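Just scan this pair:

***
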Amino acid sequence: MQLGMIGLGRMGANMVRRLLTGGHHCVVFDRSAQAVAELVKEKAIGAGSVAEFAKQLAKPRAIWLMVPVGAVDDTIAAATSLRHWVAKRPAEPPSKGIYIAGRMVPAIWSKWCTMVSNTG
């Protein structure tokens, strides 16, 4: 299985390490080039931008955002600017696009889905 991880802080980096240990392939991106470089040493595929990150993921792209809540809007905006993404509701299978799940305020969830779906 291939998974993309955006956000390589303590939690994101350790999740990638566990996935790599389990035999999965991971493409990683973070604002910190050092965080990316550390995981590349551990066999992850590094990306220097969101566009490069998207190109390195096979379709259907499975992406995990592990960023602070304050960075989600900017991260989704950067991803959706590539026009590769389709919003999916949590009840639908994550076969393509962005699959938004988790416990959050419905208004925030709706805002993120709208950000994604308005990109065409």
